[in-house]
Here is the input.
Amino acid sequence: MLPKAVTEYLLAHRDRHLAELCELLAIPSMATVPDGACAAAAEWVRARLERLGLGAQVVFSAGSALRSATQSTSPPNVLAEAHGGEDRPTLLVYGHYDVQPPDPLEAWETPPFSPQVRGGCLYARGASDDKGQLFAHLMAVEAWQHAGGLPVNLKVFIEGEEEIGSPHLEGLGLAARVVEAGGPPNVIATAHVDDRLPTLLVYGHYDVQPPDPLEQWRTDPFEPAVAEGCVFG
Here is the structure.
């Protein structure tokens, strides 16, 4: 159950949040188009994270800080974190600001990068994949901060090449960056399946219990095996 102060804050600032989201949606950040739009979107996200009080930086796959939009041929990424306390769990929020090309343009009732609200829905390229979701996470952070502070340590990774398969993600050294200063994070992600259904928030963890005592295992505990329709591991 969310604290009442969190939901009240979100309701009170809904119009401002919608206007800010429309700013991000108006940036035509397609990873396949090297026109500077991805750099602009990454900088928008970085600046918004800093307004939330997080330490944020824009990085390329080589890990260098952003100096200009012409330093790299690959779209930049955004890393940020906030430390709430040694006794609190660490949460990793993932998202991406790059979007699919809006073709065919004739299929759009309104321009894809001119956000419009019609019938209670927001229409724009990236409104549901994935700028809307990543912005929802940021505004949740804002609401918690105004309600007394974050209950977790927070790490944020927003990438700029998800729609083309994240070809340069490995070169970022992401694992070391997100784990340092806080321990292995838990992960959350969102899934929007249908306008008639609520958005799904998915939480999980990837750590496992030690497999002792080993003699009780029918198979190697780290070699999954299937027997009689069951998975062991």
About this structure: Helices lie at 4-12, 14-25, 37-51, 131-146, 174-179. The first helix runs from residue 4 to 12. The beta strands are 55-59, 77-82, 90-96, 116-118, 121-123, 153-159, 186-191, 200-204, 225-227, 230-232.
